[in-house]
Amino acid sequence: GAVVSQHPSWVICKSGTSVKIECRSLDFQATTMFWYRQFPKQSLMLMATSNEGSKATYEQGVEKDKFLINHASLTLSTLTVTSAHPEDSSFYICSARGVGDTGETQYFGPGTRLLVL
Amino acid sequence: AQSVTQLDSQVPVFEEAPVELRCNYSSSVSVYLFWYVQYPNQGLQLLLKYLSGSTLVKGINGFEAEFNKSQTSFHLRKPSVHISDTAEYFCAVSRWGSNYKLTFGKGTLLTVNP
Chain A interface, mutation test: which of B3, B96, B101, B108, most A Cβ atoms within 10 Å? Predict the structure, then answer.
């Protein structure tokens, strides 16, 4: 149980284009999803917290117009990197928090590696 | 705000040796504690967690951790490691009432050599 998927796993795009990354909880309902960014050999940096049916809460220093987050249902959240630039290249990881006995625990997706040329 | 310190950035060990990965945290309120493992180019997998109750927590793959409130530590241990345990290990805390936001340590790279 508690499986989270991400799609795509890899994406290469040209500078100036937008990229959408999907995060799905496959076997539980996720009231809250989190989006992280990880640079090589570094820890995870929380970008934003996404609650179903409401606006995402962004961490300090994260541009909300650059990184659009939509949590449309209890099993799906999307992160759209708008007008991507090479400095946006990174490993993006989502996590989901369920209800009940999974409520305190975040379950992570496998990550999406973005390369902007 | 809470913080997490993983004292060792890299820990090399030989196969079948015991290992301890250290984690200390600071927080003015009660916390939940987690250890996650990350294999190359993958997301994070939950190893174990401490929410309440017994301070010795057993997780997957033979790992265990002990919550020590007085020393604000949550060290991860395994009595005998395998080469397949080579990975990055992250300690994380979630402050009660924070909507379960995680604060991660910088990670410890465990390298198991034959």
Answer: B101
Q: Return the closest-CA partner of residue B98 out of A28, A2, A104, A109.
A: A104
The predicted-structure confidence for A64-110, as pLDDT tens digits, reads as follows 999 999 988 889 999 999 999 999 999 999 999 876 555 677 889 99
- Which residues of chain B make contact with A6, given a CB cutoff of 8 A? 43
Is A103 in contact with B107 (Cβ distance < 8 A)? no
Q: Residue B100: list chain A partners with CB under 8 A.
A: 32, 97, 103-104, 106
CA distance A32 to A103: 9
Per-residue confidence (pLDDT) for residue A103, from 0 to 100: 61
Instruction: Count other C-beta atoms under 10 Å from residue A27's C-beta.
Output: 11
Cα–Cα distance for residue pair B110/B9, rounded to 1 Å: 9
- Residue pLDDT, tens place only, B18-49: 999 999 999 888 889 999 999 987 888 999 99
Give the bridge partners for A76, in sequence order.
A24, A73
Q: Please judge whether A106 and B90 are an interchain contact, meaning their C-beta atoms are less than 8 angstroms apart.
A: no
Residue B67 above 80 pLDDT?
Answer: yes
Nearest to B42 among A95, A105, A110 (CB): A110
Alpha-carbon distance B55 to B4, whole Å?
Answer: 18
- Nearest of B87, B69, B84, B100 to residue B21 by alpha carbon: B87
Across the interface, do B41 and A111 touch by the CB < 8 Å criterion?
A: yes
